[in-house]
Model the fold of this input.
Amino acid sequence: MASGSKQEAGKQSLLFTPGESLLHKANPLTSLVIMLWMISAAAVLPTAGTAILVLAAITVSMATGVGKRSVKRLLLTMTPIGVALIVVHGLLIERPDETNIGFIAVSPDGLDYALKVFMRVAAMLMATLLFVTTTHPSEMLKALDQRGVPPGVGYLVASPLLLIEPFSDRAKAIRDAQRVRGLDLTGSWKARITALPVLLMPLITLALSDLDQRASILSGRAFRAYPRRTVINAPHDSTFQVWFRRILLAIAILQLGIPLLWRF
Amino acid sequence: MLSVDDVTFSYVAGAPVLADIDFKVAAGEVVAIVGRNGAGKSTLLRLLNGLYQPETGAIIVAGNATSDTPVHVLARSIGTVFQAPEQQIFNPRVRDEIAFGPKQLGLTGAALEARVAEVLERIGLLAEADAHPLDIDQSARRMVAIGSVLAMQPPILLLDEAQRGLDKAAINRLSTIIETEKARGTAVILVCHDMDFVARQADRVLGLAGGRLAADLPTEAFFTDAELTASIGVEVPDVLALSAALGLPPALTPAAFAEAFMAREQA
Done:
């Protein structure tokens, strides 16, 4: 049995998960600024700080109901990165502090560095996941329009996220269409790799033909006729959120700027 | 050939989109599945070809239970033409696209070439055999999708709105293909919104309403039950409405209508 409704199945392909949490209700620009602040913090904090940031982000994601999906994505992405970092920095790159464990030369400094990079990437990824799982791209687009961002720029920012869902649905449809023509996607790795072009060719061809069609449709609907658009159902915003964003943005800039100034 | 036994299916536990579905399709039979949008037609189709698994009940396709048989193995017994042909096309030539399915089944060499040539002839695209499938018109592209499944010679053929987007000549060709498949003993299942097409092609109609099988009747009996067709939400075929308006016996095809009309005129 398949789980979830068709609609839910569609939404699962998109990272956004509906909810009623504070982050879901926040103006998309507030969520965006929180993400930017977390990324800037991850760039400057020491390893212990980024570890706390990751834990905090996981806790928030659990509290907002997007924890399971976020953590799953985090693990799927970070596991190969972690392995690669350990192998490259802990084992392959020669450092003066190498110690032998059995027949393997391990560098504690290299492992420290690997952990530092790992935690930074994990914190940045978790910040992004928290944003995309709680903010629907269409709401983001409306929020940008509301702030007077030119429609073309807004579309450029939000369209990759908006396209994830139809792209993912189409990928599933292509996979199904080829499976019912006898394509075996359950066999060996070799068979699966051989099947890749069969799945990717229609996906890429259709995506490319879509680009032209989408551009024509947007032009046909006078998408850029006016430099600013009126939003009928703009996402909720408040003076508190506006000031919160300003302060957080200032902190983010300072976080990045002060260490840079200190170095020079 | 195909047996659907008391099948229930849900996307969300406790909210079945299909319930108590029970029917059989014999070899050489053409059966249409009709109903409103969202009635569960496409879901049922995906259950038949094994893409979805029933929550309860069983579906047996040419002796194989869909629950125990991988989709690519079931493809030998049940061929599916989906609504959007572009979603399966990936080869640079029409003939390669037609050859893909039989190749998956292990056909090679002269036998494969002969199979492809036969199908190209049947779908009327011999002259376009070396064209890129995306360079030919939409109607021909859909015929490529139909041909790519015909080339696998499945004993059961599922056509999901296969007639949609076809020009008149291609619809006539599709009708001929269905008739030939029926004569060969293939069980053909149509998911269709075009009731004129259903009336012309189908021996039997399965009407889905609210996720349940509301009707399983011979085509004429189905369309002449006005209350039933209204409850399922399908229109009566034009030719049948015309014959009713003229007080003629029910006619499902223009030929049957003409015969009934002429008989009355000569009487």
